[in-house]
Every structure is written in C-alpha cells, then in structure tokens.
Write a structure and sequence with these properties.
The protein has about 325 residues and is α/β, with parallel strands linked by helices. It is built from twelve helices and eleven strands. The protein is globular. The chain binds flavin mononucleotide.
C-alpha cells in the first residue's frame, strides 16, 4: 500500500492528493468533477462562463453523482464573482478555488459558511497574503499550466520559495501529467498536485471530440502563449484563431454582456473558449497545459487515477516514503 503524506484542507481529507483543476466554459462540469471525487481526489467544477442557476444545477448534479469531495473554481476577474461564490456556498460545495485576481472578501464568506477557500498563486508574496487572510491551502501554478497564467516561471522554480514562505497545504500545478511529476512535487514539499490537461483527455470530460483530437495530436511546438482580454497571458494550442490573434487580426466581439470586471475588448475570450469546447476548434481558443504531448490516450478517470498511483509508487522508491 502506497503511504502518502496525510493532510487536511479545512476538515476535508481526500484519499489521494490529486485535485482536478477547474476549467472554465464548461470544460470541467459535474460529470468530470464527480468522477474525480469518486476516484478519491478533489473534483472541481469550472464556474466561469456559467449562469448562476446553471452553476447551482451542476453542483447538485455532482453531489448526486458522488459523495466524494467536490469544489468550484471561480475566477475573480468575472463580474459575477461574488454572486457565484454565494451560489456555491448556498449549495454547500466542499471548497472554493479562486484565481485570476485576489478577493479578500471571499475568506470571510468562506469562514462564515465553514467552506475552505483555496487561492491559486504564482508567487511567495501572494501566497503569504492568501495565508494571512485565511486561505486553507494554495495551488501554486507555474507557467506550464493551461489557461490564464500568473507567471512566466516554471513550477519547480517558484515552488521552493513558496513552500518556505507558508505553512498551509500547498498543491503544485502546471505541466504535471504523470506519477513522476506528482512524485517530484511531493518530494519538494507539496501536499499534493492539481492537474487539468490530463483530465481533459478523459471519457468523463464534456468537451467535443475535435477538442480532444487536437490535444492528442499536439506536439510541443503546437503550444503557445496568447494575450487574453482578461489582462493576463493564456496558454493555448496554435490554430487559425490564434494565428489571426497573434498577427493583430483577432475578430472583434460581435456582442458583449460585460462578463468581465475589466476587458481589453481585443476579442471575446468567452466566445472563443465556448467555440472550441463545442467543436469549432479553429474558430476558438483551446487552452492547454505545456506537457499535453506526453499524453497519448483518452481514459476513464478511474484508469487515470490507477495509472497515476501506480507510477507514483514506482517513483517514490521502494519504501514508499517521500525521500
Ligand atoms: C481548458 C482549460 C481551462 C482552464 N480554466 C481555468 C479556470 O477557469 N480557472 C482556473 O483557475 N484555472 C483554469 N485552468 C488551469 C487549470 O485549472 C490548472 O491549474 C492548470 O491547467 C494545470 O496545468 P496542467 O493543465 O498542465 O495540468 C484551465 C486549464 C485548462 C487546460
């Protein structure tokens, strides 16, 4: 039996130290989050891009499908952030992840509701601020991550200083796709990892087949960094849309409902993400982690967990201890 370090996030004690990263615009919905929760990890619904009632229904569905740990990821950059947090708390979600900006108010709301808040950070400074305000844990995200990026530095370069700076549990994210990556993070003092790209290539992830095919075909040189109207760079696959964007010819938004607190207006990121999820992959943005080329199969979440834990056991050495 593989002995893993024991830890808690608030009162929660997941069987395995693996969080499935929240993915906006319905990439991670109840089907994926519940499957990860059932497998013993932490499943996360990406709230960004959902309406409030849709989010409520997704949380209920995930809780119906699994008695495991289900969280919600909400980007601070969205205008409905506060209402989404309230909806998630009303639905008694197990924990809330927040990134792409920093909210102080969320910690008080989480405390009052008894729901742990986990901040996504990329620097020791922000990790310390999160700890001070009451975060139950942090996700440390390196530049290898998919989606919006808070740093241009690799995960294993920023991790040691953040580990040194804080005492709360730390989950490493960005470019981890197998047990070797998890083992490396644990050996550097992380309590666990957050992975997203690996879980897109699962049977339970709801994206279109075209989206998954692009992932499966991707070579290292197909992954790039693009500007996002959110005001942060984002890691995505090269395609027709990205070529237009990088040559200064992004299609301007056709309509706008003011979904972001601040938006550059260069193009509509929500439309672009929704296009790709629904199969119009050349007309949209396909967010992806840097190491997508290391994944070669679409598996059930259960099989992904089995493989990760088998590899982890191998890389942690004979005595199964973290060395
Ligand atoms: C398609 C996609 C969408 C994402 N959307 C979000 C999001 O809405 N909020 C967030 O905090 N992170 C988001 N991320 C980042 C992931 O949650 C995760 O931290 C990161 O991708 C980890 O790196 P990996 O994909 O290499 O495992 C997204 C990543 C991907 C691939």
């Amino acid at each position: 039996m593989l002995q893993l370090p024991k830890f808690r996030v608030g009162d929660l004690a997941p069987t395995f130290p693996i969080i499935q990263g929240g993915m906006a615009l319905r990439v991670s919905t109840s089907s994926l989050a519940a499957a990860v929760a059932e497998a013993g990890g932490i499943g996360v619904i990406g709230a960004t891009g959902m309406g409030l009632e849709e989010l409520r229904a997704e949380i209920r569905e995930a809780k119906r499908l699994s008695k495991g740990i289900v969280g919600v990821n909400i980007m601070f950059a969205v205008r409905e952030f506060a209402d989404m947090v309230k909806t998630a708390l009303e639905e008694k979600v197990d924990l809330i992840f927040t990134g792409a900006g920093f909210s102080r108010d969320i910690f008080k709301l989480g405390r009052e509701a008894g729901v742990p808040i986990v901040s996504i950070v990329s620097s020791a400074r922000l990790a310390l601020v999160a700890e001070k305000y009451g975060a139950s844990a942090v996700v440390v995200e390196g530049t290898e991550a998919g989606g919006h990026l808070g740093t241009d530095k690799p995960l294993f370069e920023i991790l040691p200083a953040i580990r040194e700076a804080i005492k709360i549990p730390l989950f490493a994210a960005g470019g981890i796709v197998n047990g070797e990556g998890i083992s490396r993070a644990l050996k550097m003092g992380a309590e666990g990892v957050q992975m997203a790209t690996r879980f897109v290539l699962s049977k339970e992830c709801n994206v279109s087949d075209m989206f998954k095919k692009m992932y499966l075909k991707a070579k290292p040189e197909d992954v790039t960094v693009i500007p996002s109207p959110v005001g942060m760079p984002g890691r995505a696959l090269k395609n027709t849309f990205v070529a237009r964007l990088l040559s200064g010819d992004a299609p301007p938004p056709e309509s706008c409902d003011g979904c972001l607190k601040q938006c550059s207006g260069q193009y509509c990121i929500m439309n672009a993400l929704e296009n790709s999820r629904t199969g119009r992959v050349e007309e949209g943005v396909v967010f992806v982690g840097q190491n997508v080329h290391q994944i070669h199969d679409i598996l059930s979440v259960k099989d992904i967990f089995n493989n990760l834990l088998y590899e982890l056991k191998f890389y942690m050495g004979n005595n199964n201890k973290v060395v």
